[in-house]
Amino acid sequence: MSNWYKTQDQNSSVAVSSRIRLARNLKGLPFPARMTTAQRIELNQRVKEAILGSNTPFAKTLKYIDMHDVPETQKFAMVERHIISPEFANKTEPTAIILSSDESISIMIGEEDHIRIQVILAGLNLAKAYDIAEQIDTLLHDSLHFAFDSKLGFLTECPTNLGTGLRASVMLHLPALEWGGEIETLGTSISKIGFTVRGMYGEGSKSMASLYQVSNQITLGLGEKNALDNLLIITNQLIEKEIESRNSLNKLELEDQCFRALGILQNARILSSSEMMNLISCVKLGKSMGILDIKASPIEILVEAQPFMLCGKYGVLEPRERDIYRANMVRETLK
Amino acid sequence: MSNWYKTQDQNSSVAVSSRIRLARNLKGLPFPARMTTAQRIELNQRVKEAILGSNTPFAKTLKYIDMHDVPETQKFAMVERHIISPEFANKTEPTAIILSSDESISIMIGEEDHIRIQVILAGLNLAKAYDIAEQIDTLLHDSLHFAFDSKLGFLTECPTNLGTGLRASVMLHLPALEWGGEIETLGTSISKIGFTVRGMYGEGSKSMASLYQVSNQITLGLGEKNALDNLLIITNQLIEKEIESRNSLNKLELEDQCFRALGILQNARILSSSEMMNLISCVKLGKSMGILDIKASPIEILVEAQPFMLCGKYGVLEPRERDIYRANMVRETLK
């Protein structure tokens, strides 16, 4: 397996990635917000031993990383790769992460909850991602005792996660729905039935690269399977609508826009992050629709051209310098 | 010789073309504004015979064209090639033109004055252009009698042309002076000493492709040689200032802009005239400064991508259709 953003999913030109997150807490320890440093260190050790001490195939692919050993730049590059949350990257307390070599599995220790199991896979792969997350959950459950209430389910720091502790999400590329102005209406409808649509990489509901994350909101009173099934239904409806919208776009105008975007990316010497994302979105659409014949993966470029990813690769860079390195990297990749 | 816009002048990256125009009127005939149709036809015939009836080398390269035989589209394409004035293209009375095969010489008959001799050459070539214009002037003078006053010089319909009847002009590419906002100040200074700077292809003083025409205004009380010498001094000063400005531009930003312009022109599927001109201007600058390594001539593209030039080449086209043909033509030329 490879990192989600390096894998080109052939099955869907709309679904970019699928993510499962399970929130778990250990019985007998306060929630992280109220933990002492000693308790945090104890937590890290217990989770580490539970995973790495087990003799499962998982254990061999997983690595325990003390977050104090990770430089700031690399932490935020992890955020850009969707491995950890920004809140986790900002924590100064002793926290740790258990990571698979392909980064598809990441277990944050000491974020909002004691344990946050995350599995992220390319394309529309909710069932597979859930399957992996569940195996980790079982593994941890064997040696750790989770805070669980027969009525409320898994206990979590925030009541919105109570119950299954499951947050399932799909990242979708929805440029046609965005251009058509349909995304807001769809977002409002979807939120009424317990799901959220929000822009990735951007502020508020408007996304930078037309990337939107659809996720379940309800964790209480609804089983994991139902939550996943419902999310899949919503996701497939959005994909269908997006493809309809794409097919109704003016072909020539679309070609014009896609080729121009590629032309700029192949030529620019200075490239801001936001411009790069908007152009990459057009290139992704053009590639998906067979307009642009390029080998490079637009999503891979989008992730690798993020500010901290560039800093991690080329050393600490000033914003202006970063725009130059970004332009060079993108140009070379698309040549 | 070749059309001015098809010739790539190696000597100057700033001077695009040089133009000489001599206004002449025949004794005993009213100015065109007051001529009857019969008198116009008589005028056309007399000029035609004066030129084509002579046994000079000129005569063999020149062709007489009745403007009634020229389709509207071609007339305005001639305007775009700077062969005739827009006023002349709009005339419905019997008018004619005498044209050399390379279009460097054009003699408009029945424009504002009876005769307008024009010579247009690529680059900074005022002396050579004047030399050719003078030969035609002498040739015509031999068989026609020009309205001439010993005090006022050549008589012309408009008093601004009285005297030498000479308008000499140079078309300059001044992107760096334009970006730096210096062009307006320079234009004002220059106008105070009897010269005019005006944008080509655009409205008012702002030009579309940073192309500006510098011309003499004084035709009375100043000999032709002095007028040309003064224009040359002004022109060389402008060229020097432009080159200074170019060299003080931020190199990376300039490269970014030039490469982006080329990238868009090489990729767009829909291209408006104004966008094309602004991008071509960047490409011309980039080529002049050794940033872009392209064979095609930006000025040739700029002229050939004008609306009526496209109509003439591809048949009558709607504006939208024209933007598509323009994009295709430009893309192919720059591939």
Provide a descriptive summary of the structure in words.
Two copies of one chain form a homodimer. In chain A, the strands form two sheets. In chain A, strands 2-3-4-5-1-8-10-9 form an eight-stranded antiparallel β-sheet. In chain A, strands 6-7 form a two-stranded antiparallel ribbon. In chain A, helix 10 packs antiparallel against helix 11. Chain A is globular, with a radius of gyration of 21 Å. The mean pLDDT of chain A is 93. Chain A has 13 helices and ten strands. In chain A, 47% of the residues are buried. The first copy, chain A, has 335 residues and is an alpha+beta fold. The interface between A and B is medium-sized, with 16 and 16 residues.
Labels describing this entry:
two-stranded antiparallel ribbon, alpha+beta, eight-stranded antiparallel beta sheet, 10 strands, homodimer, 335 residues
Low-confidence stretches of chain A: none
Report how far apart the termini of chain A are. Answer: 26 Å
Q: What's the arrangement of strands in the largest beta sheet of chain A?
A: 2-3-4-5-1-8-10-9
Helix content of chain A: 40-55%
> What percent strand of chain A?
15-25%
Q: What is the assembly state of the chains in this entry? A: homodimer
Mean pLDDT of chain A: 93
Biggest sheet character of chain A: 8 strands, antiparallel
- Helix/strand/pairing category of chain A: alpha+beta
Number of helices of chain A: 13
What is the 3D form of chain A? globular
- Say how many strands of chain A there are: 10
Radius of gyration of chain A: 21 Å
SSE series of chain A: EHHEHHEEEHEEEHHEEHHHHHH
* Major protein interface: A-B, 16 and 16 residues
